[in-house]
Amino acid sequence: MLGRQLNNDDSAGVIPINSMYEPGGEEGTTDGATMSAEFMTAPTAGEPEPPKKQRPAIEPEPKKAAVAATSPKNSVTKKASKEVVKKTSGKGTLTITVKDAKLTRDTDIIGKQDPFVCLDLYSQFWSWKSKVIESGGKEPVWDEQVTVDVNTTKQKLNISVKDEDLGDSVETIGSTEIDLEQLTSKKDSDQWISLQFEGKDVGKIHFITAWADEVPAADNKPKKSPYLVK
Predict the structure, then answer these.
(1) What is the value of pTM for the model shown?
(2) Cα 161–Cα 166–Cα 167 angle in degrees, nearest 5
């Protein structure tokens, strides 16, 4: 139905819409295509229009949590140590307890040898001699203590075990030379030190040591104030 009715006067010469597009009509075909009149029908007044199709809303993808670029190993923060390392002067006091020895060489053919110990710091002209253990043989026990003020740990300590014979003659049983730092690297140590004679091992001597390092005095010189006018 059209929105208004046609009057008799207006109907003259008007071709009905249905006849324009019905099959077989004289003017019902346009470019070979046939259109039904139902597509030209206007909606009835008051009739609701059919709902329009809406595209479904596209929900945004959830954002992924940002991954730290650093690896677990690199992400660990190491705390700087606040411990202050004291500088040593290389000077100090060394206490050596000469305990005993286990020897494999005996210089006496008849009877037992009479061993004693000699220590020497040649660089600072220091030497020491233990008591003689008469008939000490291959297992002498001295258990003597000696203390020396060390000027520098960068020097050698000479150790000799000797046999005292009749007539004040002396014969070396075995000896060695070690870095003094071997005895001063720790505050306390308990060591067996090997002895040699003519390139062969002839036993060991037992030392117990205690080292007290001399810490350099702090610089007590007064500092100049930056605000003093020259």
Answers:
(1) 0.58
(2) 105
